[in-house]
Design brief:
mainly alpha; Heme Oxygenase, Chain A; 0% strand; globular
């Protein structure tokens, strides 16, 4: 079941793999303009804050078993001291990311997570996996780019370093939890596709702002 689900999920990511997006390619190449990392952090903060609420609500709703345990373990990592939000703020502070209004694409991204959560437990887990299956690779790439091109301090890079390791476990736990629910292919496709598209649009918003 897990092999089938992973293949199905990866099919849903075709054409929406985030490291293939021009924004992350520019990040890796070291050509982000002044202020782009600040603006990115100002918006990403909204997602990082929301993720704890998403995981908490999903864990409370799931029945006892592998799925609930996977989400509870993920949530525990998020809120254990130092919390992931605290680690993120070290990154955000380094690039002088102050408070800013939520952008339309970030608002839609959070709405996508809420939408899959409202649909079904399986759809919510598939939506979570749309990012988690890519998460470790994305975090490693970000950290490497920050060190190579953007003068990041070791403290400020910690958030991405941690996720470069933890997302491997999170993806495996969540995949096993999803398999335990014996989901339909339709629920998996809906959850993964909706969240993957919303992430892609968030990065496209970053590109559009630079081009404007």
């Amino acid at each position: 079941m897990t092999n089938h689900l992973e293949e199905l999920l990866r099919q849903c990511l075709d054409g929406r793999r985030l490291l293939e997006h021009p924004f992350y390619q520019r990040w890796e190449a070291g050509v982000l303009a002044d202020g782009e990392l600040r603006d990115y952090a100002q918006q990403y903060r909204y997602f990082e804050t929301h993720l704890v609420n998403f995981l908490s609500e999903l864990a409370d709703r799931l029945p006892e078993g592998a799925a609930r345990e996977s989400v509870a373990d993920n949530l525990r990592d998020e809120v254990s001291s130092p919390t992931h939000l605290e680690l993120f703020e070290q990154f955000a502070d380094f690039y002088e990311a102050t408070e800013a209004p939520i952008s339309p694409a970030m608002e839609q991204l959070i709405a996508a997570y809420q939408s899959v959560l409202a649909r079904s437990n399986a759809t919510a887990l598939a939506g979570l996996l749309a990012y988690e299956l890519q998460g470790a690779e994305i975090a490693e790439s970000k950290a490497a780019g920050l060190r190579a091109h953007y003068g990041v301090s070791e403290v400020a890079a910690t958030f991405w370093d941690v996720h470069g390791t933890l997302e491997v476990d999170h993806a495996q736990w969540t995949l096993e939890g999803l398999a335990s629910l014996s989901p339909s292919d339709e629920d998996v496709r809906t959850g993964a596709s909706d969240v993957a598209s919303a992430w892609w649009e968030f990065l496209s918003e970053r590109e559009a702002l630079v081009a404007a």
